[in-house]
TrEMBL record:
Transferase listed as a keyword: no
Source organism: Desulfosarcina widdelii
Entry keyword set: Signal
Protein name listed in UniProt: Solute-binding protein family 3/N-terminal domain-containing protein
Domain Solute-binding protein family 3/N-terminal span(s) in chain numbering: 28-252
Record-linked SMART domains: PBPb (SM00062)
Superkingdom classification of source: Bacteria
């Protein structure tokens, strides 16, 4: 009888408890090419970046292994909603996103400029927001920029999954402009060898979305440890570790 009871407990441990524990020991990070924060170009197997290093630092302190899930931005959001990934970085706060994502208390990035890029020699003609109605503007599908642009149904807007494709369309003059966050756009332009091909518009975007966060899916097993995740994230910001990681990447970025 005692042997049968022991066998039953053993089988329960192996087939029921163990798989749950294994899943809880993994942190699945959604990644998309957003350099220098996430450097994950399709042609490269090596994935790095500020966000990747910071999340790995948090995971290490929580005794978690990190696995990476490559996805376009909009699919990354959907994966967070259904819980097939655990963590998403560089997420702007929006009420619809807060329904399925837990946001760390402190923003990961602040004050990052939004720009419109046009072909060289054509950007200066765009002096006001109203001038944009004369052009076709490409943007990353699922991204948010500033309220007026995001909610404007009269603008001619072309969504695409990646900035690389949008910049190729712009260079081929199949669209007139691209909106995006300046630092990643400049990095991608440099990667593509298109330095000097584009210029900013005279019109400057308002910085209405100037904070982004690291988030955890509410459907993730990691949600039960979010307080710990959030605390470690705050410590990395306060002790300067995040700034140190950023500095290392931006030194490489500025030399490109």
């Amino acid at each position: 009888m005692r042997k049968s009871l022991f066998a039953a407990v053993f089988l329960f441990t192996v087939f029921v408890i163990q798989p749950f524990d294994l899943r809880a020991e993994e942190l699945k990070l959604s990644i998309y090419h957003y350099p220098p924060y996430v450097i994950a170009a399709e042609k490269d197997d090596w994935i790095s970046g500020v966000d990747v290093d910071v999340v790995k630092e948090i995971a290490g302190r929580m005794n978690l292994d990190v696995s990476l899930y490559r996805c376009p931005w909009k699919r990354c959001l959907k994966s967070m909603e259904v819980g097939t990934v655990d963590v998403l970085t560089n997420a702007v706060k929006k009420p619809d996103r807060e329904k399925y994502m837990l946001y760390c208390d402190k923003p990961f990035l602040t004050d990052f400029p939004i720009v419109f890029y046009f072909k060289k020699g054509k950007g200066r003609a765009v002096r006001t927001y109203e001038d944009l109605y004369n052009y076709t503007i490409g943007y990353e599908r699922g991204a948010v920029y500033f309220n007026r642009f995001d909610n404007d149904t009269k603008l001619k807007k072309v969504p695409w999954h990646t900035y690389n494709k949008l910049l190729n369309l712009l260079n081929a003059e199949r669209i007139d402009g691209v909106i995006g966050y300046k630092e990643p756009l400049n990095y991608i332009i440099s990667e593509m060898g298109l330095q000097g091909a584009f210029e900013e518009t005279s019109y400057r975007c308002p910085a209405s979305h100037n904070e982004s966060y690291i988030t955890v899916s509410k459907k993730s097993p990691l949600a039960s440890r979010f307080a710990e995740f959030n605390r470690i994230h705050g410590q990395l910001l306060e002790t300067g570790i995040v700034d140190k990681i950023k500095k290392a990447y931006f030194e490489k970025y500025s030399s490109k």
